[in-house]
Fold:
Amino acid sequence: MKMPTTCTLLIQNGTLVTPETATEADLLIQAGRIKAVGHGLPAAHDTVVVDASDCYVLPGVIDAHTHIALDTGVYRTPDDWFAGTRAAACGGVTTVVDFATQFADQSVREAVEARLEEAKSAAIDYAFHVMITDLPPGREGELAHLIDLGTPSVKLYTTYRPNYYADDATILRLMNACADLGISPLVHCENDALVTAQTEALVAAGEIGWRHHGRSRPALAEQEAVQRVLFLAQAADCPLHVCHCSTAHSVALVVEARDAGQAVTCETCPQYLLLDNTVYEGDEPWRYVLQPPLRDPREPERLWTLVEAGAVDLVVTDHCDYTKAQKTAQDDFTRTPGGLPGLETLLPLTYTYGVAQGRMTLPQLVALLST
Structure:
């Protein structure tokens, strides 16, 4: 984490927005912490004063799902931590939660320490979830180190063979360990067998161009995996966070489990709220190769309805910064790196299409992006 500034800052005459309300007030910040909120706050001679008249004053945005300087073992994004976090800061993001990947033959501690070294050039605050890929039976105790390292959450995958995939027995075993240790798991939910079968059918038919990508990972694959992972988390009495829900039914499954008393949260992304699978028939389908893919044109409106109702806990980007050259190397969705950039546009997109279009209030936006 970056060290806080030592200067004193007074923001005057702005509209302060919290998850509960929006009110006109001044804000005094000392050493990176809020010292006072009120009217007519005194300013010392060395205080930096900002006049925020006619402006909203928001908490820093937290993008809780990013992939800066990503190395999948197959593809690598060319960005670095300074470039990625600088772009985030330009868009109002002051904290990112990225991932420390446990590569083959690494302990979880080694994975976190290696990622901490990579992130030293970050321009903003950051944290990590830890991607568990190699923790066979008998080594679950290693997860306890994550508490000491300040990374008390793990990410698991129901897809992406062979490097990330975990079968149901592994997921249940690790969820049991997480429940015992107070660690929170988040899961990328897609049924790997359904994705594999659909992809193989498209390859056999010669339909491997970018425009076929959306068909390779059907909505049913996500929805079935969400249902299954919810069941496993309930069996383990373990909290759960469901990543990047691309369909309203996925969110509805989370809501149903939450209403039944299960400790579960979920997220979606601007791409699933604003885009749909008709873009695969456009001039640049390569831009939209991502996992999960974009869905039926009716899905964005359904997701917005759930966001407005408070059913979605977070809006995040799932940011992956591949270059155009990497994405267009082959018109073959099976050989194209997946992901969209989005760090710098999370706040402006959510405000423009959420608040400005009357879908949510400013306090709702802050609750989704800053808490």
